[in-house]
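User: Can you predict the 3D structure of Leucine-rich repeat-containing protein 51? Sequence below.
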Amino acid sequence: MSKQDYTNTSVQEPPLDYSFRSIHVIQDLISEKPRTGLRPLRHSKSGKSLTQSLWLKNNVLNDLKDFKHVVSQLLEHPENLAWIDLSFNDLTSIDPVLTTFFNLSILYLHGNSIQRLGEVNKLAVLPRLRSLTLHGNPIEEEKGYSEVTKADRTTAEVWKRMNIKPKKVRIKQNTL
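Assistant: Sure. Here are the predicted structure tokens for Leucine-rich repeat-containing protein 51:
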């Protein structure tokens, strides 16, 4: 399977789901069995998962030591990791290792113990990050933190319509 084929098919793959496993350290993922969903996980010939999603929600992680190393043992293409769910753990900061996954588009960090709003700045280097959750962290109490309101969404939509030109549609000529 070419890298292009992998990218197209793995988006539909179910997540590698280690939620609710009482995991204390990332290394435990190697010996822990992931949860099974409605659809079975597909694996490469080497036995690694072909997914782009890793769910670690509702555990007791307080750091991401060895995260990249462990992920490379679990996923056939760790560089294509697009969704990481670390919600409801005990993380106090945003580990810089998360910024090494350049295809990351969804990052759930809600319900942790992140205290400094400045931690979020680390994620600015992720070009595809589209969804970030931080609610339920102590940073909510910091000045400058706010949720996106309905008015903010409306303003963003108006700005988008005014500033982003639509793609030109080419009409194919019938060749008879």
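The first helix runs from residue 3 to 10. The longest strand covers residues 53-55.
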